[in-house]
Structures are given as structure tokens and as C-alpha cells.
Amino acid sequence: MDSVVIPIYTTIVSVPYYHYVLEGLLVLVVVFLWNRRNRRPRRPQLTEEEKEELIRKWQPEPLVPDTPQDHPALNPKYVDGKMGKYVSIEGKDYLNLATSNFLGLVGDERIEEVAKKTIYKYGVGSCGPRGFYGTVDVHLDLEKQLAEFMGCEEAVLYSYGFATIASAIPAYAKRGDIIYADKGVNFAIQKGLQASRSQIEWFEHNDMEDFERLLKIQAEKDLKNPKKAKVTRRFMVVEGLYLNSGDLCPLPTLMELKWKYKVRIFIDESLSFGVVGSRGRGVTEHFGVDVTDVDMIMASLENAVASTGGFCCGRSYVVSHQRLSGLGYCFSASLPPLLTTAASEALRIMDEEPERFDHLRSNGRRMLEGLRAAIADTLFYVQGDALSPVFHIKYRSDDVEEAEKKLDALVDNAFEKGLALTRARYLVGEEAFPIVPSIRLTVNSQLTSEEVDKSLKTIAEVVRSLTKK
Amino acid sequence: MRDIANVDLDSDDSGSILESGLCCEWENKDGSGMQTELGEENEEVMSEFYRRNSEPPTDEPVQEQFDFEYPAPRTEGLDHPSMPDATWFTNFLVSFSYTVKFFFARLRHILQLYGWEKCKGNVESEKYKNFVPLFSGPDPLFIRNIYRQGSDVCNRPVASVPGTLMTVRDRFTPDYGWTFEYKGTESRVLNMGSYNYLGFAQNRGPCAEAARRAIDQHGVSACTPSFNFRHNKVHKQLDALIAEYLGVEAAMCFPMGYGTNAMNIPAIVGKGSLILSDQLNHASLVTGCRLSGALVKVFKHNDVNDLERKLIQAIAEGDRTTGRPYKKILIVMEGIYSMEGTISPLPQVVALKKKYKAYLFLDEAHSIGALGETGKGCSEYFGCDPTDIDVMMGTLTKSFAAAGGYLAGTKKLIDAIRTRSHDIHYGTWMAAPVAAQVLSSMHIIMNKDGAGEGKLRIRQLLRNTRYFRRSLAQRGFLLYGHEDSPVVPLMTFFCTRTLIFCRETLRRNLAVVGVCYPATPLTKCRARFCISAAHTKEQLDWVC
User: Fold this and answer.
1) Does the distance separating the beta carbons of B256 and A160 come in below 8 Å?
2) Do B131 and A262 touch (CB under 8 A)?
3) Chain B residues lying within 8 Å of A315, measured CB to CB
4) DSSP state of B305
5) Cβ–Cβ below 8 Å for B132 and A232
6) What top-tier enzyme class does this entry carry (chain A) (predicted)?
7) CB A124 to CB B403 under 8 A?
8) Residue A89: closest C-alpha in chain B
């Protein structure tokens, strides 16, 4: 006992006096904090009666609000037969300028034969996700074919176009990363960006100076905090051909910015795959950019290829990651074999018949020039690149409702004259940026010059009759 | 080392099957006849079933062979999920094995980093050395050095229709999973891995013919979202048929099952609402809940008491961020859970939701067609009114051997979803041949052709399920899940054991799915069997 107490006593007595002050203060702080902990106000505990009263009083909203029965979504046009160059609605044929059947592959006999043979071999459904006996050999063949078509190392096949893009972006970008996105990107990309939970920096549509301004701001922040900069991944997401405006992205400038500021690039070529480029390989072929320099190309097979599904292609190092972390790939049933072989056959047709691309481009140019002439001197105007098969007809008005009325009137009157047009549909409350209402007019490679001229004439007549009123 | 499951084989429910008059085919009253030799490849049985099943199924209507009363559902013990845990020693060994594996994985990673071991996988190009690395964290380590060694068990390519017997391409890896090469041969295996509950995965027969005719009449695809155009014969009919099948006012079909959840839950709930989601919900439900913007709270798997506690707390306290009560509360759960094989306690949850004025979203991906006397899913199985479930969702991939999903409920709900769904505005149509397959298989199940085949398939599925589960449990395997669930997870706990199990079964021509992280928790790996109505007793005996 003495051997313990005496050394302690001598230590206490022999220390300098400031120790007493310091340790005394520490003890006071501990006591103060302990008291504060006890005195923190607690949430009032409710009694059983109070809880029952609250439950009785609580009135939830109805699960969904009432929908007016004249909403356009509840009144689609019901189509018979195939939606090829002409669509048949209630027994009458209309020229189809509404669907994204750019290369005219809907109703192609070769594709249908192949699809039928596939049913006889594989049945209809694949009955499982890719990891659990849902990988059919036709999937592996299509992935190889897509990778060779695009000149990439590897391709990953998804069963739905929207899910491709919405799953691919969050597989790489997580919380704490930065994504630079064009303001004109489509809804699927916006959902992918939302799911990634990264910091999103928007730049004005196709405005490279605005984009560089944002990159410079980030570069300054990086200088101030180099440790954080080393672990923050950067991505930029653009579309090859924008669905909402029909413009091409300025890919060479984007690639310069990529190397200068070390930002990886993801391109959504849903619309431009099979359309842009002399052999339909997309914007990389059109601009002469090396496709292996693009980190990932995402595309949907639901437009030019006339099947269902989507794919991502690029370097194996980047793209193979999705086989384990792309949610729409791992947790969804794989693409039915018949749609896979249909897409395969469509790619073969694209290789064997490159004149389809020339027809599509010439129809697109003819349509654009004709439209500009047809709606000149009116409040209507057309937006879209000369290489694009998609054009947006908009109405110059500050009042959105008036613009919508005029556009609807154009669609209805054109319909009466045998032309199937549609409005571009958006979820107004959920889009990231305000939407300008428009008519989305598409051309395809099967249209003859007479049909294009006839449709231009019809549109001109309708526009004149609308502007006279 | 095996843990004996808690199975009472003498329970009197087995009598309802035995009394049907066909007990001599299944088992004798004293229980003999269920056992076959363990571990031996019974050559006679195998060659017999190969001979019998190598011919394609004919178009003759199947005769009603027996009068089998669909037994009452087993509802006791549903709120405590039948997921028995392993002994503490097994759990300790599993954790120990993972420690060893991660140690070696880390060591390998360091060796690869310094170039002492050649990394045969994909590496980033030299041009990107000044970029921030694309992958970081423990996941790439796991994938590269642990998952890779067992990756021959996943993604096995199939070269035929995924019926009960299917052809798998043989492949081997010369370098422990870095690359795969094909031997050029194929194996004919018994398929217990694909979701083919009612056996409609056929490449001949009325469904395949209907799909073929649909291609001739309506084409393969249409390149348009469903907002402006829908198909008169195909989509209108399919929507009406699904509504009739489920016994609700209206329904709507979508081309992707995963997308049906991920793109439509945001159309139903939004900011200011609360979603109470089961702990083991599927990734599509989790994605949909996250994208909706509502607050998401998780309740313990199938635990009705926990759900009630959270409901009371939510209503009493309201939304703490805004200080106001929640706009609405949505309970999201599944019918049969695909990794556990448990069935959700629907009657208790319906009672709760009526008491607390919440809404119920039921995802019947695996239970539609597989449960219930006429295959209408969980609500029929438990005898609940389908109109009590506010939003019924299901997929058409499993029981109908097609692709896609549907939503069903009141007309008001479906109208609202049509106007607010992401899929309708930005997606594409369901392909006509796929829809035709669903239409024809649903016709068969609903007995619209009068042949009785649908009823037969459903009953055969239940018999197969119960027989298989009992056989395995008798042999001492630990199974998860409800007795009537056709998803049968066989617990192996160690991921190495799962690997060996899957490899050895494939060597013996049996295709089984092995599941590991991230689909299941790291320490609860399992092998999973999916029963089909098309499996015959000999096949199940051979598997056991």
C-alpha cells in the first residue's frame, strides 16, 4: 500500500502548479458536458391514447390523383399491323413520320425469318438473368458483333434501352464524383445522373465555352485541395445526336477538353447509332475520332436497329465492370433470344446495304429544306441538324398553352390529310429543365422523294390554314 | 458438415397428397419410395429420362390424370421467416475462411501492383495514368481476386431452349478465371436454374406458334414509345386479359420487368411520402424507391410487428424534415423472395394497411402463376381479395416464359400511371411476339381452351415443390423458405462450398445456380433450385 501511495503523493506534490490549473479545468469541462447531456430536451413521448388519436385523425392523400379522361396518354392511336413506312389506324393508311424506324428495318423479311427460326430453337423468353443461365449463345454472338461493328474491345448487352443508360452511369459515378452534363440530355440520362448521386454540373446545350468555364472553376478548386482532387472522378455525359433538339455534339472539342482537364467521356448514341457516319458507326466515325479514346458509348437498339434492348461498348477495362455492377444487367432477365437475333440480322443488313444511310441522309436534308420553306413567315420554326433524321417543329410564343394548342392542331389536321405526326412527349414536372413543346418529326430511308414532297406540301397547307385563322 | 433442418415429416398435411389416390406413384404410406441412392449416378434412371425427354413435347392436350385437391396454404409461422441459422461454429468458420481469402486477395493485389505477379486481367491504358483511377475501394479487390476464381459458375452460356433439359456450352478456364475458352462440345443438363415455373419455356407448341404468327402479322418491333401509339390487337388484348386474370379493374403491360418497378414507382409516390420497404426487396424495387424521392424506411424481413411499429411511429411523428404529416405511406414487398424462397404474410399486412390507412405495393415477380389454385399469385393462395392490394405488380418472365412486367389495380391507378410513367413517355413497346407468348400461355392457364392443362401444370408444380423440399430435407440439407415456394435455396454458407457444389453438379449434368455476394449477405452463400411443373418425378429423384 505504501509503495503505491507514497510515489503518487510525491508526484502530485512535485509537479509545477500549471498542471493543477489545466487538469482542474479539464475536470470542470467534463462535469459541465455531463450535466448538459442530461439536460438536453427529449422528444415528448406520446401515450397510447395520443397515438391512437393521431392515427384516427390522419388522412392520407389518395394513392393517385384523378386523371381527366381527355388526357392524350389515355387516348393513344391504336394501330393495326406493322408500323413500317405506312401505319394502319382504323382501316386507313397514314404515312409514318412519327416513329424512329430510320433504316426501314421494321417489317423486313430477313429479320422476321431469323426471329421465327430463333423461336423454334430457343423459345421466346430466356427465363433468367445473365448470371443464372440466362446467357444464351446468341447474346454472346451479338455482343461480339457489336464490338466489331463499333471497333471496340467489348460490348455489354442490356434488355431495355432506357435501363441501359440509367444503369450504366451509376455503375461508375458515385457520391463524391463530378459529372458534367449538357442541359439538353434526354430523360434516361437524367435518371442515370440522379441515381448516381454525384455532383452534377450542367452546361448550356452545345456551348463549349460554358463547359470550359465550369472546368476551369473546378481546376481552381483542385489546386486548393489537391488531396480531394486525387480521389474525385470526373465524367462528362453528352449525346451523339440529341433527341430533344436534333443537334450533333461537337465531339472534337469535347475530346480536347477531355485530355486537357482529365475528364472521362460517356456518349449516348441512342439516336446516332446506325444513322450518323458513312457506315452508321456513329459520331466517332463522322468526326474521325478514334473510338478507343471514348471511354464508353451507350446506345439503344430500339431506334435504327428496330429491335429492343441496348448496349454499352468501349475498352474492356471500363465496360466489363458493368457485368457485375450494372443493375439493369445483373438483376434483370436477359433479352429474349428472338430480339437478339433480330438485332444481329439488322447489323448484318446495315453492313451489306450501306445505301440505306445515303437515302436516309438525302431524305433528311430534303425534309429539312422543305420544312424551312414550308413554315417560313409563320410563327412555326424547325430545329435540327442537316444530318439528323429527327426534327422538332416548334411554335414561337411565350404562352406555352397556346403553343401546345397550335402544335396539336397541326398534328390533327395533318392526320386528317393522311400524315401521322406526333408531339414529343415529356414528363413536365420531372424533367430537369423547362420544356418547349414541339412536334418530333422523323424521316426514314424508305421514303421516296415524291413521298417527302407530298408530306411537305401537306404540312405547308395545314400551316397556312392555321396561320390564316 | 450438415445442419439438420426442423422438418416434421409426420405432420398430417402430407395426407392430403397421399389421399388423392396416386400415392403409389409418389410415396408409400410408410414413407418408403421417396429415397434414392445418394451420390450414385443411377444409370438406368438417367438413360430412361433422357430417352423419354429427348422428344419434343407434342401438341396433344394433356389428360387430367388425377383428381388432386389443391391443399390449404400453410400460414402458420409466416411472420417469422423460415430461415434457420447455422450453428455458431459454422458461422465462425465462414468468417475465418473469408479472413483468409481477403488476406490472400490483398497479398495478390500488392504483388500485381508491384509487377511481381502478372496481372492477366484488363488494365487501364497508359494514356490515362494522370486521370483519377476509375475503380477504387474493396469491391474491385473482391471481384478481381475472389470472385474471379469462382466465375466459371456464373454466366454459363445456354445453347437451347431453357426447358427442363437444356444444352450448356462447355467451357474451361486455363488460368483460374482470367479467360475462358470453349471446348467446342455441349452438355445436355437437367435445368434447375432457370425460372420456368409452369414449364412454358418450349420451342414448339401453341405458345411458340402464337409468337410466330404475331411476327407475321405485327412485326418484331415498332420503334415508338407507348404514349402516342399502341397496338390494337396485341396490347389492348393483353392489358384486358391481365386484368381479367387477376380479378382487378385494369392492368398495363411493360416490356421490362426491372423497368416496371424502377420507372413506375416514381409515378405513384413522390417527395413528402413515405415508403416502408422490406429488408430483402429486389434491386428494381430499391431503385424505384430511390428514384421516387420519397423517404424510404426498411422493416425487417416479413416481420409484421416491426412493420406495425414503424407505421405507428411514422403516423404519430410525421416527416421530421418538414414537420408535417406524410402525404401517404406505401408498403412495398414481394410475394415470393427470389433469394430466400420465403412467402410474405399477406393477410396480416393487408389487415395492417387497412387499420393504418396505408397503401400496399405487392411485387409478384415469382409468385404469379406459381401460387394459388389457378395461378393468380399470393392473393389467391391466402384467400385475400385482390382489390385489397392497391398496386399489384408482376413479371411475365418467370411463369409465362416471355419477358416484361405488368401493373394492375383500379382503373384510376392505371390511368394515372399511364400519364406519369417514365416508360410510357420514353421507353418502347412490348414486342408483339413476346406479348403473344404471354397471351397464349395465359389463355392456357385460365383454361380458356377447355383442355385443363393450366390447372394440371399448377398442381404439378405444387406437388413437385413439396416432394422436392421434403426429399432434400430428409437427406439433411438446410433449406430456406416456405414449403410451397418453388424457389428452393440450399444453404451452403461457405462460398467455396457453393462453388464446389455447382461445379460438381454440372459435372454430373445438373444445372444449379450458386449465389454469393452481392445478391446475398457475404456469409450466407447458397445454391438455389427452381422447380418447374415440367419436371417429372424421376428427374427430381435423380437430382436428390
Assistant:
1) yes
2) yes
3) 122, 125
4) H
5) yes
6) transferase
7) yes
8) B232
How close B31 comes to chain A (CA, Å)? Answer: 34
Partners of A199 in the beta sheet?
Answer: A178
Helix (H, G, I), strand (E, B) or coil at A253: helix
ipTM of the complex: 0.86
pLDDT in tens, B217-268: 998 988 888 888 888 788 889 999 999 999 999 999 999 999 999 999 999 9
> What pLDDT was estimated at residue B274?
93
Cβ contact B108:B116 at 8 Å? no
CB atoms within 10 A of CB A25: 10
**DSSP-assigned letter for residue B19:** T
Give the Cα separation of B227 and B219 in Å (integer).
Answer: 19
Chain A's closest residue to B234, CA to CA, is A80
Contact at 8 Å (CB) between B92 and B493? no
pTM for this prediction: 0.85
Provide the pLDDT confidence category of residue A138 given band limits of 50, 70 and 90.
Answer: very high
Residue A201 pairs in a beta bridge with A180
B155: nearest CA partner in chain A? A131
CB spacing of A133 vs B156 below 8 angstroms:
yes
Determine, for residues A125 and B401 on separate chains, whether the beta-carbon distance falls below 8 Å. yes
Query: Which residues have C-beta within 8 Å of that of residue B521, sequence separation ≥ 6?
Result: none
Nearest to A82 among B155, B218, B257 (CB): B218
Classify strands A390-395 and A419-420 as parallel, antiparallel or unpaired: unpaired
Residue B74 pLDDT: 60
Residue A164: partners with Cβ closer than 8 Å, 6 or more residues away: A158, A188, A298, A299, A300, A309, A310, A311, A312, A328
Looking at residue A42, its pLDDT comes to 59
Looking at residue A446, its pLDDT comes to 92
The reply to whether residue A133 touches residue B191, judged by beta carbons under 8 angstroms, is yes
**Alpha carbon distance A214, B277 (integer Å):** 39
Give the model's pLDDT for residue B147: 77
CA distance B22 to chain A (A): 31
SS3 state at B497: helix
Pairing mode of beta strands A264-268, A199-203: unpaired
User: CB–CB of B135 and A162 under 8 A?
Assistant: no
Mark yes or no for CB contact A66/B268 under 8 Å: no
Rounded to the nearest angstrom, the minimum Cα separation between B27 and chain A is: 31
**How far, in Å, CA of B277 to CA of B332, rounded?**
5
Q: Which residue of A has its CA nearest to B221?
A: A307
Alpha carbon of residue B428 to chain centroid = 25
Report the distance separating Cα B266 and Cα B289, nearest Å.
7
The answer to whether residue A214 scores a pLDDT higher than 80 is yes
Nearest-CB residue to B403 (from A120, A324, A336): A336
For chain A, the average pLDDT equals: 90
The C-alpha of B197 sits at a distance from chain A's nearest C-alpha, in angstroms, of: 10
Q: How many CB pairs under 8 A join A and B?
A: 342
C-alpha pair distances (Å), B127 with each of A265, B242, B293: 14, 54, 39
Is the CB of B397 less than 8 angstroms away from the CB of A127? yes
Helix (H, G, I), strand (E, B) or coil at A306: coil
Contact residues on chain B for A273, CB-CB shorter than 8 A? none
**What grid cell was written down for A185?**
440530355
pLDDT at A38 over 50: yes
Dump strand ranges (E) for B41-130. Answer: none
Which residue among A99, A133, A231 places its CB closest to the CB of B162? A133
What are the per-10-residue average pLDDT scores of chain B (544 residues)?
A: 27 27 29 31 46 39 44 56 70 83 82 72 79 78 74 84 86 78 84 88 88 91 88 88 93 92 91 92 92 91 91 85 87 91 90 92 92 88 90 92 92 92 89 92 85 84 88 86 87 85 86 83 85 82 78
What is the C-alpha R_g of chain A? 30
**Gap between the terminal Cα atoms of chain B:** 18
